[in-house]
Amino acid sequence: MNIEFESLQLLPKMFELIEKLNANLENSYTKRWLSVRELAEYLSYSNDRIYKLKDEYFIEGLHFYKKSGKIFFDRVAIDSWMVEKDTNETNQSQRQIVDNILSSIH
Description:
Helix content is 64%, strand content 10%. By secondary structure, the protein is mainly alpha-helical.
């Protein structure tokens, strides 16, 4: 097998690109706080679907937080919600349950 000298010169650039790809892969799976776009990509949902889930199912202070006008989703809490949702499907959303409990206290 013959390797041309020009091809050998490309090795450092190829190594650099592989390192960048590896870093991006690690960040996408270990990053805890996700934006709407990142969560949509993580769950393979549209941005609109994420906003709908936020309004209907996610609880502020548990699944997401607002800071400086931005919404940050807790990947760990979302992962738990996904597993719970698949194994324990209910007719009421978590938000409705919380609202019912709060209204019964008044």
